[in-house]
Amino acid sequence: MYATRARQAKLEPFAVRPGIAERLGLPYMDGPLALFAGALAAFSVFTLSQSTLHDVPGSPNYFVDRQAVYSVLGIAGMYLLARIDYSRFRELRVGIYTFLCVSISLVFVFGFAARGSRRAFDLPFFSFQPSELGKLLLVLALAGFVIDGARKGSDRQRTVRYLCLGLAPAALVFLQPDLGTSLVYGAITLAVMYVGGVPWTHFAVIGAAIVAMAAFVLAVAPAIGTPLLKDYQTQRLTSFLHPSEDPSDAGYQQNQAKTAIGSGETTGRGDRATQTRLDFVPERHTDFIFAVIGERYGFMGAALVLSLYALLIWRALRIVTLSKNSYGTLVAAGIAAMLLFQVFVNVGMNLGIMPITGIPLPLMSYGGSAVLATFLAIGVLQSIHMQARLSQRGRFAW
Amino acid sequence: MYLRSDERGPAVSNRLALRIALFGGIAVVLFAILFFRLWRLQVLDGEQYLAEAKNNRTREYRVSAPRGEILDRNGELLVGNRTSLALQVNPRKLPEDPAERRAELSQLADLTHSTLRRVRRTMREELKLAPAAPVTLRRDVGHFLVYYLQENQDRFPGVEVQRVFVRDYPNATLAAHILGNVGEISPEELKDPRYKDLQPGDEVGQDGVEDTYDGFLRGDPGLTRIQVDALGQPTPNGRLVSKPPAPGESLKLSIDAEVQAAGEAGLASYGSGAFVTMDVRTGEILGLGSSPTFEPTLFTRPLTQKQVDETYLNPAAPLANRAISGLYPTGSTFKLITALAALEEGAISPTDVIVDGGSITVGGQPFQNAGGAALGAVDMARALEVSSDVYFYLLGQEMWNTGGLQRWAHKLGIGRPTGIDLPVPAGAEGLLPSQHWRNQLYEEGGTDRPWSVGDNIQLATGQGDLQANPLQMAIAYAALGNGGTVVTPHVGKEVTDAAGRVLKEFDPPAQRQVKIDPESRSVILEGLHDAAQSPGGTSYEVFGGFPVPVAGKTGTAQRDEQADQSWYVILAPYPDPKIVTAVTIEEGGFGAESAAPAALDILEAYFNKHTTGPAGPNGGSPG
Fold this sequence. Notes:
The complex is a heterodimer.
Chain A: H1 2-16, H2 20-24, H3 31-51, H4 62-83, H5 87-91, H6 93-110, E1 112-114, E2 117-122, E3 127-128, H7 130-148, H8 155-175, H9 179-195, H10 200-223, H11 231-239, H12 250-263, H13 289-322, H14 326-350, H15 368-397
Antiparallel strand pairs in A: 1-2, 2-3
Chain B: H1 14-44, H2 46-56, E1 58-63, E2 70-71, E3 77-89, H3 98-111, H4 116-129, E4 135-138, H5 143-151, E5 159-168, H6 176-179, E6 181-184, H7 187-190, E7 203-206, H8 208-212, H9 214-217, E8 222-228, E9 234-243, E10 250-253, H10 257-270, E11 273-279, E12 285-291, H11 305-311, H12 322-325, H13 335-345, E13 354-356, E14 359-362, E15 365-368, E16 376-378, H14 380-386, H15 389-398, H16 404-411, H17 435-443, H18 453-460, H19 470-481, E17 485-486, E18 492-496, E19 502-505, E20 512-513, H20 518-533, H21 540-543, E21 551-559, E22 562-572, E23 579-585, H22 595-612
Parallel strand pairs in B: 2-10
Antiparallel strand pairs in B: 1-8, 2-3, 3-4, 3-5, 6-7, 8-9, 10-18, 11-12, 11-23, 13-16, 14-15, 17-20, 18-19, 21-22, 22-23
Helix pairs in contact in B: 3-4, 10-22, 13-16, 13-20, 14-20, 15-18
């Protein structure tokens, strides 16, 4: 005991007069995680600055400026969240969940329609898309419900409950309609349940149900005359299976993205890029930004970006194992799954191996809501890391 | 088995560690998939995608080149070009809704006298080749339709009007059968190596010299490569490479527009028929026409049903070129060949006299002079002058199984392709009846009797089974006139570039030389000269007063179920002919009634020019 105290006394000068980094909490944060996220955001701004000069007549830096502002705001938000103990969210799970569902529902009432779907509120400075932030909210709430319900009911009842809790907001988003985001919600739900310990047998049943449902939605329902997906959605989902030459066809877009990436070869075409510079690739600042990178910077650039994502997800998974409590484990796993799913589906779509689903590439795709929400999610990861480090410090200190 | 919420410290149980490890494993697999795919696309197949991308960013627009002009031998314009409006549809700008799209296309089909099916087929075919290019639905649309479409633009999204070159015929029907017309290349033609660089929708010559000399007349379409975005819209400053269209080369014909016009006018005043005027030495065609005729400009725009009825379905067949494919018995104009054959085969000598009693009977069958007139004692020249049938009947009888008559007719080109540089329908070489031919036909059961002396008697006067076209007769007469050269007739004279420099001259070698005794030649020519210009000659009434000495032969061919076919073939000037003219008039009666006057018009037109000016067709003065 004395020895311990003595050691503590020796440490006192540091505890009493902590350095500025200490006061900012920086030593307890995951530096590499922040570095990778920041690098991706910077790469996004850089890519946009080179490739969207002529997109908005009269303001060549329209997308660049905005994306830069969103990123700075996102980094600030990340820092703020990192300083908050994420465990508080577990207590707020009902409130968070309610806010999630209500904000998504409000879009149907107040939202403005873009390209046939209502997804966002038009705020004075930018349009806010609740379903983006909703990804994080769903992770936080669902993880809370899983922890909370760990001892209530049978395994089967719990599984059904989590599924319902996860799929309700997913259904709301699906109705906007925003198929891509609803799939992300589904992925988050499954990941949280998986790490939360839902039995393997249940996953087998869920997997079978997903396959059956996909078959029903894509093949059976249209055949019996009550299509559940809009035509363009079905087309996008299946087009990667049959690329097409018809420019109005979804398969054509994918072909163009694939051609763009391939044409970048090893070192990229730089300003000689044509596929993504001349509008052959649609949505090049959002869903198909990876094609821009592929064409402009070649395999070197694209592989660098992909590596940054791999590192980002590695850090997230590491935080899953570091977490001081189960809630943190679940939240970190949910966020890691969210990032992994989005990266894989978006990049896969650019590479022609996944269907076109309108899922943005985290931190790269232009869009305020998505950038902010992703940085906030990384902020939560930082918080988990920080709490784990602080508690470890405590363990060593005492 | 669920997580405990109150656990402290790293909350990783063994089970959870397994799940997280598996999660990490999945992440590794997914990233590996992405990396390998990326590697494959960019590093392994990058070259191919780069080529695809380069190909992608430009659109090649073909800029049609004007076809070369067609001129007559003196440089007078026969076929030129004018610009006209073509109706095009830009498929990218059509309504996306299938029903609206369909409605617009069917309306367009109605407006352009087409059907929805045809419009769709055209679009499909053209889009296959040039996915971004507008599709031409109709060329040479009228201004009213264009105004209508422009005023109703909102009802016809995607419809565009473009200027294209269209053939222009300043002389209306003049030389229609020689010129031919221009039309969109057919799927069969596309497979022809002759048209190997062409694409559907391109125009090629159809018939006439437009067809024969298509390779010269057809220009080289220009290419404008425009950098475009994905919607096919040109990007600013995106014009990359431009190859200007190269206009086709001009074709100068050997046709003399005045001779041609005179011949056509002559024909038109007598009904259906044909004429050929040719240089006897070179085979250059100075005029060649067929009646009834048509307006070639008809084919520059879509035909109405009425026009189809009047051209393709018309029993008078205005599109048929009777001069090179009209097959008729030639009547007495054949006597020149009979005379030459008899002299050369030794069947008779020029001075042998035969008493023409008006008819002979061979094998119980009577053969009469036309009108039954007895012409008295005739020698070769006299027989030709008065066209004694009996004289030639006897020659036919003499040579009935020697094949001599057929041999000479064959040498002079009867029953053989003429070799003219115009598209000729199959079978246009006609028929030279012979012993071999009829006996074989008889054995095959195609006729009721074998060759008989009567057949040869008929042939000797250009009757019976003989089928020949005016050009063949002109060639045969020219061979006699020039002393034995069977020329290759041609209308193409030279090809010049836009600046008028001669790039290529057409001077096809003669088909063959026939050895003709000069004495035989002069006797026959003398007979023909007397026939035309000696009182009592068969066409003296027509050519008696003509200032240039000529040698011409009438012909009156009897045809089944039709009035007599009138023929006239004339060599001028006598005795050293430069040109030959053959005229035939369907149901024209006696040779001197219609064919000879038509020939007179032609010769007048020719000699008006060539006796006053120093230059003949070969630069010399006609004798």
